Structure formats: C-alpha cells, structure tokens
Amino acid sequence: MTRHFLRDDDLTPAEQAEILDLAAELKRDRFASKPLAGPQTVAVIFDKSSTRTRVSFAVGIADLGGSPLIISTANSQLSGKETASDTARVLERQVAAIVWRTYAQTGLEEMALNTTVPVVNALSDEFHPCQLLADLLTIREHRGELAGLTVAFLGDGASNMAQSYLLACATAGMHVRVGSPAAYSPDPAVVADARTIAATTGGSATVLTDPAEAVAGADIVVTDTWVSMGKEDEKAARVKVFGGYQVDADLMAGAKPDALFLHCLPADRGYEVSAGVIDGPQSVIWDEAENRLHAQKALLVWLLRQQTVAA
Ligand code: CP
Ligand code: NVA
After folding, report:
1. ipTM of this complex
2. pTM for the full model?
3. Catalyzes what (predicted)?
4. How crowded is residue 102: how many other Cβ atoms within 10 Å of its Cβ?
C-alpha cells in the first residue's frame, strides 16, 4: 500500500518519531542518502504562492539525488481543464512522488486515491503537515524531548497551522492548546481526532478563547498570519476580531520564562506578533525555516522506503 502524507495523523506516533530521528541524521550529514539517484523526478505543484516550501522541496529533492519538477498550477491543465485524478494517473507513470500545495483537502485526497506514488500535502486550507514536522524537529532540538511539553497556538484556530498543531502535537504526546476567537475555532472533527490520538500518547488538546489562559505556563508559543492565502478579502474583519490575540511581550510573559516562539512565516509584524517577540531572543524562526529542508527530506526518504517494502 502506497503511503501518503495528507494530514499530520497519517503518521503513527512511532512513525513520526522515526521521521524526526531521520531528519536529525540528515541534518548532520546532508548528502548521506540518495534514494532518488538516477535521477528520479518529484513533481512539486503549487496552486498558491510559496517561498520556503518551494525552495526546501527543490533543494531537498536535489540533495537526495533527484530532480525536482516545480509546476505552477496556473500554467498547467490542473488549473481547470483536468481533474486531480487524471493528473495523478499521468504523473505516476513518470515521477517518484507528488507534492502539492492546494486549497481544499479533498483535492489531495482525490489525487492520493488515484495514484500509486506517494502524495504529500505541501499546505491545504485545512492542514500544513510538512511545516509541523519542521516545527517539531525545531522544538526537539531546543528542548530535547517533545512528550509532555505544552504548546499554545494563538490566532486563527480554523487555519491549516492551528489544525496541524492539534494533530501533530497530540501524536507527539504534547499538550496542545489553541487560543482563538469563538468564530474561528478549529473544526470539531479535528479536535476530536486530536483528543483520540492524545488519549493514546499521554498528550491533550484544548480549545480556549482567552489568549492569556492559552499561553499560561506554556513551553512553546506559536502564531501564524491572521489572513491565510485565499482569505485576503476578509482582512479588515479579521484584523478587528484577532486584535487581542497578538503575541507581544505581555502575552509572552504569561508563558514559561524560557518559552520558545515559533512562526511558520511569512509574518505580519504588528499584527499576529510584535517585532519585539519575533525578532527577540525567544524566537527560533530561522531554525524552524531551515528545518523544512531536513524534515521534508526525511519524509521523502521514509515514504520512498515504504514503496520499496511494498514492492
Ligand atoms: N511556511 C511556509 O509554508 O512558507 P511558504 O508559504 O513560503 O512556503
Ligand atoms: N496559514 C498560512 C500559512 C502560510 C505558510 C496560509 O495558509 O496562508
């Protein structure tokens, strides 16, 4: 069975830990693994803008001995003339894996259902699981262990980042709190899934509306843009509702004194985070951005290994 990575809970706790270990190994010896030597090609498709995801997949695939094929949806038939399922069937004859940044999660599911090569979610409206592998790697580097740590995500609880935080941190045995306005709470089905996983890992998942309560005593504080890609028309309304959720020095003071600050970037300083926090000593955003490379390489190596095992 081909393994895909469409949401954070597509990996078991043991598999997530194995990929993070592999990422740390590849970070120490960047060119140690060449499963794509040949080179084999990996298609990386973008319906939305990207800097980090585009660069880290392109560089990572090349590091693994492969050839990245970056496709902008606007210049492909996927922009309207062809379905995800037909695209999947065309691509599987020529590439080793498909990486796709898109809107609805259902598109990724359709792609995965119709192909024999691994499909990776490079961000959808619902989840950003590759970012979470990088974030967990970063937290592990700075704190040693993941299980038992408390993470507070502030801002848009219905966003891809908040929802991936719920699933990935529950998988890692962490205590994850989302602090968001009631109208922007995470999907209850995602919260329920996170709680089911947390019950097996010793973690927990909590949704709160009070930002101070969400960060109280946290080991890690995280935020993301209030205006995700595709929501630009709602910017004025969102800025009003999210005003009290800005991660600034006052809010950080409620977390542990040595709490880490993470942000997937790009950031709007003065909105979801103050410049003092994101550019301050608790911020680990540049390690986090670099770790996209190592985490995704490990993910690709692992997914391709499952293909070999299955063959
Ligand atoms: N964090 C992240 O996914 O960045 P990009 O949108 O630049 O890829
Ligand atoms: N939530 C953001 C993440 C960007 C990497 C967005 O979807 O635009």
Report:
1. 0.99
2. 0.98
3. carbamoyl phosphate + L-ornithine = L-citrulline + phosphate + H(+)
4. 21
